[in-house]
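Ops channel
N.P.: pipeline sanity check, posting one input/output pair.
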C-alpha cells in the first residue's frame, strides 16, 4: 500500500511537471477551399503551408460552424454551435451593444486557467466594446482589429494617448464624421478600422498594408517571451484578410500569378512560415500543435478579389459546401504522422474539447454549456482507420445537415449581401435537396426523389439540432420567482395573442417588465414559458443593453405551451427587461421564472 502511494505520488509529480503542449491557431478570413497549393491552387503559391502539410496532416472534410465571420469565430472559441452562445451572424460597430457574452467559456479561458500565456492577434469580431474584447475572454493581450477590415470606427472606441493618426485623421475629424452621418447610418469612413492594443486604439486608421506582417511579428515576440518565461502558450492568430479590401506590403505587390488576391495569400503563407520558424528557433517546434484554416468560404461576389472553393459549390454565406468546408492543415512533429490526410468530418468546434484532452486541463465541472464539438485527438494523431465522432453536423442556422456521406439542404435562398440585387445566380434553388457528398462533392445531383427515406431521416435530425440557444422543457411549477406578462403591456403595434397575455405577433413589438436582481445581482437562470407556431426570435435587453437573442424553437402550435431556459446577468436591485420580437409570426409569452445561480 505504501509503495502504491509512493508510486502515485511520483506519477503525480511527473505529470504535473510534464511540459504542457503549446497551441497555435492561424485563422484566416474568407480563405477558400482551393486557395492553397496543397488544396489544388494553381496560380497561388503557398510553399510554407504546403510544407506544413508535408510534415503534418491535411483535413479534407473540415467544417466551420457558420458561413460568416462572427458566428464562425464564436463557435471556434467556445466549442458550441453559434446559436447556443447567442451569436447568429455578423457584428457591426455602432449598431447597439452586442458581442459574444463574457460568461461564455473560451479556449483561452481553459488554457489560461492552467497557467498558459494567451494572445489574440489579428481580427476579433466578437464585439468591440471593452466587455466583449479578447482581454475579457481569457486572452492576456489583444493586438489587432476588433471587426472586419471593411467596416468603420466604433463611436465609443477608446483611443490611447499616444495613438498614431494616419491619413490626416484626428479626434476632431472622427467626431465630425459621426456628427455628419445620417441618422441610423455609419460615418463616411468605410474601410477605416482601428488597430488596437488590449482595449485601446493605437493606430487610426490602421495601415492595412502592414497588418499581415505585424500580427506575425507580435505572435513571434509572444512565443519568444513565453518560452523565456517557461510558460506554455496559446496563440490565436486571426489574419484579417483575404477578406476585402485587399492590401499587401511592397514586398508582395504584384508577385503572384493570382493577382492581388494571390499576393495576399502569398504574404499570409510567408508569415505563417515565419511563425513556424520561430517555434523551431525557440525549441518548441515538437511541443506545439499548429492549425491553419479559414473562418468561412471565399467571398465569391468579390470576383478576382475573392478566392475559390473548387471543387466545392459556392462560397461564403452559402449552405452549399463552399460556405463552410474550409482548407485545414495541422502540424505537430512527432505526434502527427507526416504527409497524411484525414477525410473524416472534423470541425472548428472540436478545438476546445481536443485541447482540453491533449493538455489534460479539464473543463470546469460547473460548465453550463457543454461543447457541441468533440475530442478529435484520434483524427489528428491516429491512423487512417480512425472514424469521425460526428453522426450529424448542422450547417449555419440549421440550413442543412450532414450525416455520413449524406447531406440534406433545406433550400434556403442566399441573402442579398451574398449576391447583390439582380445578380442572384439562376441556380439558387429553394427546393429541398439531398446530396451524396462522397460521390458528388460538387453537389451537382439532387437525389432527393431517389432516396426520400434518407431525406426524411435527415429532416428529423434538424428538429433535434442543438443549434438553438434554447431547448424546450415542459412548463411547470415556478422555478424561483415567477413574473407574469401582463395583458395590454405590449407596445409597437402588436396584436394580442389570443388568450395569451404577452402576444408579440409583429416584428418590433416589445414588452418591458421590471425584475429584482436581489442584493448582489449576478447570474440568473431564466425559465421562459411561451407558445409559438413557428420558430421565434426575441431580443432580450437588460437595462437598455441587448444581452442575448432568445431563439425560441416552435412549441408545435399556438396552444402548446412549453418553457425554455437561458442564463442572464442582472445588477443588484431593480432591472428592466425588454423583450422585443424580431421575426414575423412572433410569439406568445406567458411568464418567466428567475432563479439566482449561485
Ligand atoms: Ca469571414
Amino acid at each position: 500500500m505504501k509503495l502504491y502511494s509512493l508510486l502515485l505520488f511520483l506519477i503525480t509529480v511527473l505529470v504535473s511537471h510534464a511540459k504542457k503542449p503549446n497551441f497555435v491557431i492561424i485563422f484566416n478570413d474568407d480563405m477558400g477551399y482551393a486557395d492553397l497549393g496543397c488544396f489544388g491552387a494553381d496560380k497561388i503559391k503557398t510553399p510554407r503551408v504546403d510544407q506544413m502539410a508535408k510534415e503534418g496532416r491535411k483535413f479534407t472534410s473540415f467544417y466551420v460552424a457558420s458561413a460568416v465571420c462572427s458566428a464562425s469565430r464564436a463557435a471556434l472559441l467556445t466549442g458550441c454551435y453559434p446559436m447556443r452562445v447567442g451569436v447568429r451572424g455578423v457584428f457591426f460597430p455602432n449598431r447597439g451593444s452586442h458581442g459574444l457574452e463574457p460568461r461564455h467559456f473560451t479556449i483561452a479561458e481553459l488554457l489560461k486557467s492552467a497557467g498558459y500565456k494567451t494572445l489574440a492577434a489579428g481580427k476579433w469580431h466578437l464585439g468591440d466594446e471593452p466587455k466583449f474584447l479578447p482581454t475579457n475572454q481569457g486572452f492576456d493581450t489583444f493586438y489587432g482589429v476588433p471587426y472586419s477590415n471593411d467596416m468603420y470606427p466604433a463611436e465609443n472606441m477608446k483611443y490611447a494617448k499616444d495613438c498614431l493618426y494616419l491619413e490626416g485623421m484626428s479626434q476632431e475629424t472622427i467626431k465630425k464624421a459621426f456628427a455628419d452621418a445620417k441618422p441610423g447610418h455609419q460615418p463616411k469612413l468605410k474601410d477605416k478600422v482601428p488597430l488596437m492594443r488590449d482595449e485601446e486604439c493605437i493606430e487610426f486608421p490602421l495601415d492595412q498594408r502592414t497588418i499581415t506582417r505585424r500580427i506575425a511579428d507580435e505572435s513571434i515576440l509572444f512565443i519568444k517571451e513565453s518560452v523565456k518565461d517557461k510558460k506554455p502558450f496559446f496563440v490565436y492568430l486571426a489574419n484579417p484578410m483575404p477578406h476585402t479590401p485587399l492590401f499587401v506590403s511592397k514586398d508582395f505587390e504584384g508577385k503572384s500569378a493570382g493577382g492581388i488576391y494571390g499576393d495576399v495569400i502569398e504574404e499570409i503563407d510567408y508569415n505563417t512560415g515565419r511563425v513556424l520558424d520561430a517555434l523551431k528557433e525557440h525549441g518548441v517546434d515538437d511541443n506545439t500543435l499548429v492549425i491553419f484554416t479559414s473562418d468561412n468560404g471565399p467571398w465569391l461576389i468579390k470576383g478576382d478579389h475573392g478566392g475559390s472553393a473548387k471543387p466545392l459549390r459556392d462560397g461564403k454565406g452559402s449552405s452549399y459546401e463552399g460556405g463552410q468546408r474550409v482548407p485545414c492543415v495541422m502540424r505537430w512533429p512527432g505526434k502527427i504522422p507526416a504527409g497524411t490526410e484525414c477525410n473524416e468530418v472534423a470541425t472548428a468546434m472540436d478545438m476546445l474539447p481536443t485541447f482540453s484532452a491533449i493538455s489534460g486541463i479539464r473543463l470546469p465541472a460547473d460548465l453550463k454549456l457543454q461543447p457541441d464539438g468533440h475530442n478529435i485527438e484520434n483524427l489528428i494523431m491516429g491512423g487512417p482507420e480512425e472514424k469521425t465522432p460526428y453522426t450529424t453536423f448542422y450547417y449555419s442556422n440549421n440550413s442543412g445537415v450532414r450525416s455520413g456521406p449524406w447531406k440534406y439542404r433545406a433550400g434556403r435562398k442566399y441573402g442579398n449581401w451574398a449576391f447583390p440585387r439582380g445578380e442572384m445566380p439562376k441556380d439558387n434553388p429553394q427546393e429541398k435537396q439531398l446530396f451524396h457528398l462522397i460521390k458528388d462533392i460538387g453537389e451537382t445531383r439532387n437525389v432527393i426523389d431517389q432516396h426520400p427515406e434518407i431525406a426524411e431521416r435527415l429532416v428529423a435530425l434538424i428538429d433535434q439540432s442543438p443549434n438553438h440557444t434554447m431547448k424546450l422543457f415542459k412548463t411547470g411549477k415556478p422555478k424561483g420567482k415567477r413574473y407574469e406578462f401582463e395583458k395590454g403591456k405590449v407596445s409597437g403595434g402588436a396584436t394580442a395573442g389570443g388568450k395569451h397575455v404577452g402576444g408579440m405577433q409583429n416584428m418590433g413589438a416589445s414588452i418591458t417588465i421590471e425584475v429584482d436582481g436581489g442584493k448582489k445581482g449576478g447570474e440568473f437562470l431564466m425559465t421562459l414559458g411561451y407558445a409559438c407556431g413557428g420558430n421565434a426570435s426575441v431580443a432580450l435587453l437588460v437595462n437598455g443593453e441587448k444581452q442575448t437573442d432568445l431563439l425560441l424553437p416552435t412549441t408545435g402550435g399556438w396552444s402548446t405551451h412549453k418553457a425554455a431556459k437561458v442564463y442572464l446577468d442582472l445588477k443588484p436591485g431593480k432591472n428592466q427587461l425588454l423583450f422585443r420580437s424580431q421575426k414575423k409570426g412572433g410569439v406568445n409569452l406567458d411568464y418567466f421564472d428567475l432563479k439566482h445561480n449561485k
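N.P.: looks fine end to end. The pocket of calcium ion is lined by residues 29-30, 69, 243, 295-296 (CB under 6 Å).
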